[in-house]
Amino acid sequence: MKNIVLLGYRCTGKSSAGMKIAERLRMRFFDTDHLIVEQSRMSIGELVNEGGWSLFRRKEKNVIRKLASTVGSVIATGGGAFEDPENREHLKRNGLFIWLHADAKTVIRRMESDQKSAHQRPSLSADDVYTEVVTTMGKREPEYRRIADFTIDTSTKSIESVVDEICTFVENSNKKD
Whole-model pTM? Predict the structure, then answer.
């Protein structure tokens, strides 16, 4: 069975949906950001303060390389993980890519309501939040769109609805294999 790899910008529901998908389909769940924090014994903010985003991306690449060899897992990736071609290549070998996206206003609203978000994910730039979100989403969207096997807009959907749609897609994909 292929891995289900959830990709997309932060606060689009990758971790929340991923845990529920794994539970429903009786698969293991991995969150790359959580694994990086666990292995580093530092928050993402502390990692970035210590060695910049390049240190975080190196640790992310190591985690992804290990996860890519799993089978039958749900993997929630960090939003920028797919900017690295090696990460895409490793995960695609045995992965079904599901792109979760939401409009910028929804992402910002979710970020503001998530108390740990700022601590876990420091700013990527010196821009204000809206400019950073819009700019970064615009930069990443073409790649997400290109590699996604399935796309779902989570802006106005409940987690349960998102999980239902993804599970239906995965079950139909497995019937074709």
Answer: 0.91
